[in-house]
Amino acid sequence: MAITVVGSVAFDTVETPAGCRERCLAGAATYFSLSASFFTDVRVIAVVGEDFSTSEQAVFDAHKIDTTGIQHAPGKTFFWQGSYLDNLNEAKTLQTDLNVFAGFEPRIPDAYRDSQFLFLANIDPVLQRRVREATPQAKLVAGDTMNYWIKDHKPALLEVLKGLDILLINDTEARMLAGNNNLVLAARAVMEMGPRMLVVKHGEYGATLFHKAIPGAPESHTFKSPAFPLEQVTDPTGAGDSFAGGFFGYLASQRELTPGAFRRAMFYGSVMGSFTVECFVTERLQQLTREEIDHRFKLFRELTHLD
Amino acid sequence: MAITVVGSVAFDTVETPAGCRERCLAGAATYFSLSASFFTDVRVIAVVGEDFSTSEQAVFDAHKIDTTGIQHAPGKTFFWQGSYLDNLNEAKTLQTDLNVFAGFEPRIPDAYRDSQFLFLANIDPVLQRRVREATPQAKLVAGDTMNYWIKDHKPALLEVLKGLDILLINDTEARMLAGNNNLVLAARAVMEMGPRMLVVKHGEYGATLFHKAIPGAPESHTFKSPAFPLEQVTDPTGAGDSFAGGFFGYLASQRELTPGAFRRAMFYGSVMGSFTVECFVTERLQQLTREEIDHRFKLFRELTHLD
Questions:
Q1: How far is the CA of B233 from the CAs of A81, A180, A183, B16, in angstroms?
Q2: pLDDT for residue A248 is more than 70
Q3: Do the Cβ atoms of A302 and B226 come within 8 Å?
Q4: Phi/psi of residue B121, each to 5°?
């Protein structure tokens, strides 16, 4: 099944203890698309500027990602600059230039109308809601958000949550959104806001899938995936979006959305996140093969399974 | 197989967001012994004061813990007072009175001489080393330590590490001991100091077992156990010692120390830690049954296994 994703395509400049990269192809929708493209067809809705050249387009093309929905606007592409020199677990934003993203009006190409999987990457909840309402055919809708929207745009975000099946956020965001420091209680409170599933990402400690209690199977609603132990974390940018791409991409590739499919999706999410952080920005995803993904999935199983 | 444990038996006063308790039976050796007693015979080496009464003795007796090695000295038992009001993940120490512990000279009863499993709980590394040297028959030796000894008593601690098979510490301690922020590299550096295995405890995110690379099985040397998702963490005191008791107690109960036994031991460690934090100090461990332990072990498996 094809996934439609709406989000940012950007140029990033990052510095980490391992070095720096300038103006590289990045953005949540880019990480998500590249990651999900190893599992299923992906269609992107985004906006880029005149500095988006054939070499960036070629990255999407090489992964057979449908970019009909990427609008080309006069001006420059969204730009973000961040540093991980102080803390490899949290970026310090040095510069954000919205550029063409400031006037972004998502438009859904007719060819995307049959996408049954929709991913709302981290953008203004007003835009997320508009895309959700314009894609009534979507049978599984997942989304991301961030502290900024939780803190200053909560009413708009709450409207988005009502239309989500799955929300993917990190620990801090889950606790902030729920106003509860206990993660189990926070998860329950977030699921009361709309999504029937919540994926909480713990960075280097993996991720937890919470599911609203299923009658008759009260204890089957939580699943934990580890993070792959890496000797070198080069650049954490995009780890969460890559997780989302692996998770949702795997689900979209499945004939049936069984509990087992969600468990495997969690592992594939962790696998994709672990590849991304090995190199700068999208470098690792650009070079990755499905064989490497399946090999690491097998290692993940060995890391966590008793026998 | 019986385990001998040396460490502190103490009275703790704790305050947490859930309430407070005054002068309750606690201490690393107490948590460890109670936890391990569900799996195997446990023998304690410690010192207590005149305030250690028959009601505290009864707790050990009820779990068939051999207390021949607990010395009774004039004065008061080791006392610790801590608060988790600011941060449920880290205690703020309000008071530490070493009392009789200041002059502690561990003595190993003859009846303990055949213990093949030795656990050196978190005490002065000089004492840990003395006990290790006095128990040459021990075939598996594990130990704990803390930031204070790593920071200010490193030479003595390094001597202890040479005699350990397994070290159990938390993330911060592992990174501090190795001087490396990457956990995989830190684990490797710590294992170069002596122990062939390292268990790193991640608090609410579970624990990781690192093992020196085995020739022919280079990827089989890491194992992750989750932490049980709890709706209420009442008091985190003793979680690490309870983990150690479950981990080491389970190992001591096994006929053969296979890789599978170590994996299951990690799960039992997490299970025991999760029970301890549900109630204040040792209250939960005192009331626990083996049936509850095995039930939660089964839930842990479901939380992490793909099928």
A1: 39, 13, 11, 9
A2: yes
A3: no
A4: -70, 175
ipTM of the shown complex: 0.91
Report pLDDT digits (tens) over B131-159. Answer: 999 999 999 999 999 999 999 999 999 99
At A134, the amino acid letter reads A
- How is residue B30 written in tokens? 């107490």
From B132, B92, B97, B94, select the one nearest B115 (Cα to Cα).
Answer: B132
Which residues, in sequence order, are CB contacts of B175 under 8 Å at separation 6+?
B181, B183, B186
- Residue A26, CB half-sphere, CA atoms under 13 Å: how many? 25
- The answer to whether residue B218 neighbours chain A at the CB level (below 8 Å) is no
- How far does Cα A90 stand from its chain's mean position? 17
In this complex, is the C-beta atom of A232 within 8 Å of any C-beta atom belonging to chain B? yes
Length of chain A: 307
Q: What is the pLDDT of residue A71?
A: 98
The answer to whether A87 faces chain B, any CB pair under 8 Å, is no
Query: Which of A226, A229, A263 minimises the CB distance to B306?
Result: A263
For tokens 């890789």, name the residue. Answer: B259
The pairing of beta strand B117-120 with beta strand B3-6: parallel
Per-residue CA distances from B154 to A44, A58, B148, B192, B267 (Å): 55, 55, 9, 15, 30
- Within 8 A of A301 by CB-CB distance, chain B residues are 306
Q: What would the DSSP string read from start to end of B169-191? A: EEHHHHHHHHT-SSHHHHHHHHH
pTM confidence score: 0.94
Per-position DSSP letters for B90-158, written without gaps between them: SPEEEEEE-GGGGG------GGGTT--EEEE-SS-HHHHHHHHHT-TT-SEEEEE--HHHHHH-HHHHH
Amino acid at B121: A
As a whole number, the mean pLDDT across chain A is 95
Burial of A46 per CB tally in 10 Å (0-12, 13-18, 19+): buried
- Residue A67 host element (H or E): strand A66-72
Q: How far is B131 from chain A (nearest CA, A)?
A: 33
Strand B10-16 with B78-83, pairing: parallel
Phi-psi region of B243 (alpha: psi -120 to 50; beta: other; left: phi over 0): alpha
Mean pLDDT of B178-197: 95
